């Protein structure tokens, strides 16, 4: 049987990744040799690896495809095909930033002030490229972790990921520059992508994953509307949506159904009610495919 | 930008309150200074305070509005506007009672038997008003907690909250009288209520919160019905509901959809099936706005 | 008031059982005397007992009905009425097997090789019947637990339950024969079953429990389809389902709604989209009654 | 190498048993096949089994010796050699009792009132022997657990273990008779006991286990005493102890050291101080061998 | 039997209090009615109450004695006998301070700047006395908790307890004045203190509690010393201690034993070794009675 | 004030390191900026860093000294002074091994079979040196973790640490060669070592840490012995120990005290008792300094 060999990130993103696949319709369970979890699709083989290494192994062909951040794809300096951007981190659903940071009260004001200084980072190549682009010479050393704590006692600056900035703040660090914004990417080996079966499999997977992600932030709304109020109600619903309007049995009422962003609900519901909609219900969704 | 300053109860109700707001469409996250959580509506500022103090700060104008129990609004003896009653405690969804209790085997039979006795309570003012109304003189002392354990060794009676009565029972206490029934209330400062922007904001908030609470105990039912069975099916559905009946493409079947109380489901589903309904599904709801 | 006395399994299945009843519309809470939980249906009385004992107490009339595995019904050698098979274990939703197992590297190849040997099991009667049917004489001793660990140092073979086989593997055991496949069964006392009120009550309960179980593995799909694409879309939907097709207000589009097995979704959604369906949404279900 | 095959109880006593062996100088760690833990004495092999089964396997020679309760030794009706009584349960350090109990408000007053009734128990043989000795005929059925909850709805009486009686009280049960008092026993197979090497090994083990148990409830006391106060101090120290009195370098003081029961300390220390002892210190002990 | 009725603090200090009593030789276990824990001394009855209320109940005679902070004794403005100061909080073993604090960036520089301002505190009486002593008029309101979070949005200043100051810092507060330093106190009702039996009981209890506290920070040191090195070794040992010097059997060596503060060990051990001491061992202590 | 800047390992060894320092007499608490924990010695400043990086920072002079494994000192290829070997890992107290491992069923039999293969490891330099010493050319790639899971699907061999070998076994790996044995080392910067104050500080620290480690596996034994039995008792006690023999007050008895390895106790105690020793007690130790 043909198989798609897929690398998924072990560690902090693992749980969220498994939940995303669950919503997309793939049940992954960790059994036996724990780095080879079971997935209920015999055409896929999942390997759990560190996010840092997945792009390298995808590029080398050890994996057909993988899920990792744009940051690590760039750090590995590899040639892979980006299949889909998947913003699914539950907490923020926004990109992480790779930043150059220094001590709050240090004299460094711009990148070039770091000439001749020492910088610790997990992203040695990205940092060197960034410094080179700014014409700055500095010592860049690999950091095994706890990077933020090294300024100012151990190094002069760091390059590290930040989501909300709160950890930087807690360490009294100041951002000097943003090197990169990063989101998770489903990416493929170039040769695998040229295999029609693997490409079709990946495109189907991407469709379902994106459908599941879309559903995280959307809900269904359903309401009954007197026929004469329908234009008012439709005028309120966002233009880009396609409301489903179906006639009702009794008299000239219609049922209107629409999928909208959850954060619009709190403004829409009062407006719809004011426009004449009745019996409005909001219900949760598993997937949304446009 | 205009802002509504809203006090939410810190402590035992906090988690349930945050979940209620989440369902209503407002995401609250505790970050940084933990008593000023972030809410994803720039027009609202949330302050976490003890339920005991919220009515006082609403009345004084430190807050525009707040969520606290009717018990604490009464204990604080303040003049505030009640915007909505919100029964959202997940466990019981019923009022708590403020009761006067004595030892199971004590000789006290009615309120006036407490003449000259000692009573411990967190609700000193409510207790004094209640005793005065009954023409009873007794020493009422403030209790910092563990109130139920004080009878009979430390005091003769207590005034305390009870939900199911099981804690009273476990302490071998007997209820002599119920002073008050209490539910959570969204209440506003009188001046804030007279400000049209704040009042509109509060009414919108109340609409969504009540819609979310209503959805806790309701579900959606959908079924296919042959046209000739429709009257039988409609006869079964509760009169006060508005079933949505939509014609089906194939032949003379109709689809019937209705929102009902979850606890009615177990009687309705067998009855609907017996009346000719087919392919009945029940689905969960996020909000229900009549 | 008439009451149905119902035994539910205490221990490993308890939580899953309570969740199943919750989905079916019955709220069970453990309060007070913990083996007599509260259920919000005054016509039912729940007793928590070991799964091993429930069939015996049902047969003896101590209970009107109970939930236990087919394995224990057989082991108890009792005469009860099977009301419904309920496969609701969340993890696997597949039967457990009662197997005869020996050490991986033992010389035993078939059942008759166990002639004269020692076998430990919780299922003494079932094992004796199985051996007798194979014309094998062996010592069968009751095991209080940790049965798998007893081979080969303590006994020659065991008879034990297995779900995935991973525990057998971890103990280096090899399956020699499968004695039984078992799933949970709602079963009734014969006399209670002949009481019309109790039988109706049990049938209603079974209907709702099965509806809740069906919903675990099903989802609702809804989509908009241009009239001319409807045949293509309907051709894709599984034959045994009854899609609900309703005309839409605007032009010649229709809305198609169907309930399908969740594991079909990942193949159906791409196919439906390819066939012309738009705005496909998938939503969760609480109950599905055919 | 010669080996002593030793069965230790799996489950609720396991942790306390491992700690006791640790204090006695044997480190047991659960690794690999979890029922065969590692012990750092190459002459001992440990097997973890249910306490219920250990006496049977000791009697049959599967084990050379084992640790189980007197209750299970009696229930198994086996012939084993009792090597040592080891009261090491950390909480109470007192025997458990096997009692016959009935509902608090039942009419049963003495054992013979149970004539013809139903009794549930894990100790079927002990119960039958007890009833026979009292000339009572009753149905005794094996209970898989949750025994206390079965009175009065499922059976008329139970025979179960109790330590403090609090669980009986919580289930509204009343003790009708005590059948047995039980403590843990190190017991040996009769043949193994006749093997000099195994017997010596067991006696050494028993010496160390008893030394460790003794130390749980004892402490060391040390103090300086002026020579002329020595008689007064010695008069206070319990007669059965052997205080170690050693001369001090400076002048005519002596150091007095004694091992005493911890619960005597609170009376002794004030008395010793009053009698002239100074610089009293109390220190913890690992083992006490008389 | 005579009984000493003793109030112990419920809540954050409870666990540390129980451990202290355990070390002192009294085992307290929470069973049954949880505010009346069991203590293994029939002459003592323990009642668990809030620290805030204990001094009041001691003064009123509901309790014979109690353990609470100096802060609450002062806040209650009651007349009690202080039996012993017991600094046993495991973390810091130093007093807590009751401080008047304002926002870091507020204009308030000294106490009198708070004239006419609003202050929140749990210590209303202490605060009013302090302000009166400084000739300042301000509104002092009772705070139910979360006091630190109220500055500056809700009140201008607070009076609250602080141990390390880290919580104040986290809330951006600045200390304006220290009102009180507080440590736990064993205190007695004046009448109980005059009862010889109760007084003796309390003095014995205080002796053991202080002995246990002293042992937290002390260790025993023991070493062998050649006779001619003894003066050097004794010169190093702290003057206020009484080393126990005992002659050894073999030759002219002596054994030296001393109890010292644990934090001195790291300086003493290297010095003792340099002075000729050998085989130095350090061992833990349970109690130290001078 | 002079300060010693000391790097301690963050992560898996952190807790054990803090406990070791606690036993040695230094209390470390993590407060505020969590990588700079507080130590109660004003002459030491602790920095928490990854074990991998500590040797590098010690060599560069960012730290005066640090605690890390011999493995990481070698991997960093730095010139540092080894102050003390400290085997304090609580579980095994034995060295970890850095091994070259391959799949159980792979054809690789010796190191040179890996010619041209791919090897993943966290120890890139050590691995390259080892291969070079064996005249083998292979691709060595840095592994970010989960190294053992990469054989055989991702790489041909790995170089990784192992303590008990159980993780290797669980991954079906076979050891081809041991590259290194490693234990924790207190190591210093060469320049710091030449500073007399820092050297003295480090030597004192090493003395106390080694004293604390020695006490983990040792206990104190004390017994009373009749004078005529003393030679027999002394003959049993290990030759290299120095028993402390002190005359007793009463008659011709002596007290014998000795510090021995805990694992000898179980053989010594029965022997000592047999030789005539009485009232043997064993007590725990905090530190042992020879």
Automatic annotation (TrEMBL), chains A, B, C, D, E, F:
- Cytoplasm recorded as keyword: yes
Gene encoding this polypeptide? hisG
Domain called Histidine biosynthesis HisG C-terminal: residue spans:
215-287
Magnesium keyword on record: yes
> For this UniProt entry, what is the primary localization, expressed as one broad class?
cytoplasm
Enzyme Commission number: 2.4.2.17
Its biological function?
Catalyzes the condensation of ATP and 5-phosphoribose 1-diphosphate to form N'-(5'-phosphoribosyl)-ATP (PR-ATP). Has a crucial role in the pathway because the rate of histidine biosynthesis seems to be controlled primarily by regulation of HisG enzymatic activity.
Alphabetized HAMAP family for the sequence: HisG_Long
Domain ATP phosphoribosyltransferase catalytic as annotated: residue spans = 50-210
**Which protein is depicted?**
ATP phosphoribosyltransferase
Return the similarity comment: Belongs to the ATP phosphoribosyltransferase family. Long subfamily.
Q: What InterPro entries does this protein's entry cite?
A: ATP-PRT_HisG_long, ATP_PRibTrfase_cat, ATP_PRibTrfase_HisG, HisG_C, N-reg_PII-like_a/b, N-reg_PII/ATP_PRibTrfase_C
Q: What subcellular compartments does it reside in?
A: Cytoplasm
Q: Which reaction does it catalyse?
A: 1-(5-phospho-beta-D-ribosyl)-ATP + diphosphate = 5-phospho-alpha-D-ribose 1-diphosphate + ATP
Q: According to its UniProt record, in which pathway does this protein act?
A: Amino-acid biosynthesis; L-histidine biosynthesis; L-histidine from 5-phospho-alpha-D-ribose 1-diphosphate: step 1/9
The processes (GO biological process) annotated in the record are: L-histidine biosynthetic process
**Could you tell me the keywords of this UniProt record?**
Amino-acid biosynthesis, ATP-binding, Cytoplasm, Glycosyltransferase, Histidine biosynthesis, Magnesium, Metal-binding, Nucleotide-binding, Transferase
Q: List GO terms (cellular component aspect).
A: cytoplasm
């Amino acid at each position: 049987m043909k198989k798609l060999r897929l690398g998924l990130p072990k560690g902090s993103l693992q749980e969220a990744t498994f939940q995303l696949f669950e919503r997309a319709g793939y049940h992954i369970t960790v059994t036996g040799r724990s780095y080879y979890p079971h997935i209920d699709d015999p055409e896929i083989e999942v390997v759990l690896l560190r996010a840092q290494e997945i792009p390298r192994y995808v590029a080398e062909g050890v994996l057909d495809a993988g899920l990792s951040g744009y940051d690590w794809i760039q750090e590995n300096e590899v040639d892979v095909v980006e299949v889909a951007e998947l913003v699914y981190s539950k907490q923020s659903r926004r990109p992480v930033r790779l930043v150059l940071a220094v001590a709050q009260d240090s004299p460094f004001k711009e990148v070039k002030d770091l000439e001749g200084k020492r910088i610790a980072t997990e992203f040695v190549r990205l940092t060197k490229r960034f410094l080179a682009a700014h014409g700055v010479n500095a010592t860049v050393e690999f950091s095994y972790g706890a990077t933020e704590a090294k300024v100012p006692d151990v190094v002069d600056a760091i390059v590290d990921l930040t989501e909300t900035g709160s950890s930087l703040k807690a360490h009294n660090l100041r951002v000097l520059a943003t090197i990169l914004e990063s989101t998770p990417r489903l990416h493929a080996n170039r040769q695998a992508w040229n295999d029609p079966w693997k490409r079709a499999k990946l495109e189907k997977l991407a469709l379902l994953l994106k459908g599941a992600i879309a559903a995280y932030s959307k809900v269904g709304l359903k309401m009954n509307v007197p026929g004469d109020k329908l234009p008012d109600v439709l005028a309120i619903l966002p233009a880009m949506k396609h409301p489903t309007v179906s006639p009702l049995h009794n008299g000239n009422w219609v049922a209107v159904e629409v999928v909208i962003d959850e954060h619009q609900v709190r403004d829409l519901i009062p407006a719809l009610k004011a426009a004449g909609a009745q019996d409005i219900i909001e219900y949760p969704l598993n997937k949304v495919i446009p």
